[in-house]
Amino acid sequence: MSGSEPIDGEGDGALDEGHYHLRLYVAGQTAKSLAAMTNLKRFCEEHLAGHYDIEVIDLMKNPQLAAGDQILAIPTLVRRLPAPLKRIIGDLSNTEKVLVGLDIRPKADGL
Amino acid sequence: MASEPESPSETVTRKTVPALPKVATGIAGFDAITFGGLPRGRPSLVCGAAGCGKTLFATTFLVNGATRFDEPGVFMSFEERAEDLVANVASLGYDLDGLVAQGKLAIDHVRVERSEIEETGEYDLEGLFIRLGFAVDSIGAKRVVLDTIETLFAGFSDETVLRAELRRLFGWIKDRGLTAIITGERGDGQLTRQGMEEYVSDCVVLLDNRVEDQITTRRLRVVKYRGSAHGTNEYPFLIDAEGISVLPVTSADLDYSIAEGVVSTGIAGLDAMLEPGGFHRGTSILISGEAGTGKTMITSSMIDAACARGERCMAFVFEESGHQIARNARSIGLDLSRHVEAGLLRFEAARPSLYGLEMHLARMHRDIDRFAPSLVVIDPLSALRGPPVELQSTMLRMIDMLKSRGITAVFTSLREDGEIDHDSAIGVSSLMDAWIKLLNVEANGERSRTLYVIKARGMRHSNQVREFMMSKDGIALIDAYIGPAGVLTGTARVVREAEEAAAALRREQENLRRQREALRRRQSLERQIDELRANLEAVEEEEALLLSEDEMREAALASGRRDLAVRRGSTR
């Protein structure tokens, strides 16, 4: 389970749930994969600093892992935690949609 | 896509290129109409409406590949979960789990849930390729099924990407040399909802499930088969406990070789009516008659005779169960259940309304191919119902099918005139080689069974109406009385026969009397002759006596004269 970190009680967003366990599936060093990785790192630093870990899985090296998380599209970002499981596909260039996908309120950093 | 050198050359120089390499599906009949199966190393499209057997077709293709052709396969399911798939085909005897355990089959369930997916930019479906590639590599698969890949259109919003990826996927399948079946749901105005036929164009098979008169008939049609000849008709196919079987039942040629030999009917009297002592082997025989004329009993006799010869028989019965027929046959001393137990006889009982005509034919076709009987009984033929045109062609193909296998076929018909449909002039009688008509004659308050041979191709046969009787010793034929008063049967015949016998006796006695009379007259004449002869003898004796007396007298006279002369001479 997630490392239950102390959280500030006043927020009502997803941050209350605490730790973000993210898994990014890529297939080799394609332009889209690289873009997704860059976008993800930037995004997490901005919104989830200290509350996340990212696992990058290269399906070219570990093809047997694709079926487990029902991966079809590449790149796919899977939000393992907090529940429910979410899949975000694409190179994560659309920040708005990534936030929706991860249930993070855009104004979170404004608070 | 780029590297497929055989595709253009194969269409241009088809004559010089040997037949397109094909992969047998192992589906009975389908390989026949496609002359070998699906194109090797290419994707084929199997499409049809919901519930028409696409998944089953594809599964059978994989299972047969794994079990019979040593070609492992990957089943990529976009709809059913692997457990459901396994459970669904278990009823057909397919042990998918076992095949998976043996490494002959891989099942990958691809679940696409739109609500769980958020699209945030550019993507491709490399994950699908990786999964498929991994599954293929893990078991060395030669066959692939994608069922139903169109589901992806519901999961991803970017149709352009999707279409490009699908095109790439099919190209990839070709490059890998995988023989694939892509299933697709029937769409409006096109074969599949998303126009998959645009991408998979080498071989397209359409499955159909039509309802006519509340009876469904499954049909299959090869819409397209690039670079290969194929049967173009709609063929009925069957899904039941024995899997899927397609039946190429349209045969146009009449050049089958005929079976030689004569088969006894098991009824001595009936055999005697036919010059060779039975029917020719491999002919079709129609036994027509109203209810209760003994059709089933006559066919039971024929079955018993065939089984007693050690031949296999198959009876398709539409109005009774096999047990019932066997029980009824016991009343005429035939033990059919003995043959059933020995494996020589099989009853296939089904209600006529259970399937459509085509399905009935298809089922018979398959069962006959499996059981390989030498005698087939269809009882009664008139139970099969359908539109006249279809009925006629079904009958024709059924008879054709039986003849081409050299199977003797016995059909019964309730229609006295041998027609199969009241409303039309279509009859099966002309298709039959022999026709026995059974008729109940009602007269003098009783009913008698009679039969006669209307026709029997290729043999001389009796033109007499015979009465027949069923007893515990079987069926016995009796010569019917045919006289000035018409055909007499039953007690009328018996009475008439008694009268005839009495008359004959009288004639015989009269004859004897005349003979005795003649003898007497002859004897009396002979006696007269004897008498006369005796008289004649007496007369002859008399005559001889008189004659000798005359001679003696003459002699005495002569000697007297001599004495006188002597005396006179001596005195001179």
Automatic annotation (TrEMBL), chain A:
Residues in KaiB domain copies? 23-104
The record, for CDD domains, names: KaiB_like
- What GO terms describe the biological role, i.e. biological process, of this protein? rhythmic process
Check the record and name the InterPro entries matching this protein. Answer: KaiB-like, KaiB_domain, Thioredoxin-like_sf
Q: What is this protein called?
A: Circadian clock KaiB family protein
Tell me the organism: Methylorubrum populi
From TrEMBL, chain B:
Enumerate the PROSITE patterns for this protein: KAIC
Q: What is its EC number?
A: 2.7.11.1
| An example Gene Ontology molecular-function term | ATP binding
Q: Known InterPro entries for this protein?
A: Circadian_clock_KaiC-rel, KaiC, KaiC-like_dom, KaiC_C, KaiC_dom, KaiC_N, P-loop_NTPase
Do you know which CDD domains this protein is assigned to?
Answer: KaiC-N, KaiC_C
The residues forming a coiled coil are: 488-549
The source's domain of life comes to: Bacteria
Describe the location of the KaiC domain by residue ranges: 21-260, 261-491
Q: What class of enzyme is it?
A: transferase
Keyword list, A-Z: Coiled coil, Hydrolase, Kinase, Phosphoprotein, Repeat, Transferase
The name of this protein is non-specific serine/threonine protein kinase
Q: Where does this protein come from, organism-wise? A: Methylorubrum populi
Question: What high-level taxonomic lineage is stated for the organism?
Answer: Bacteria, Pseudomonadati, Pseudomonadota, Alphaproteobacteria, Hyphomicrobiales
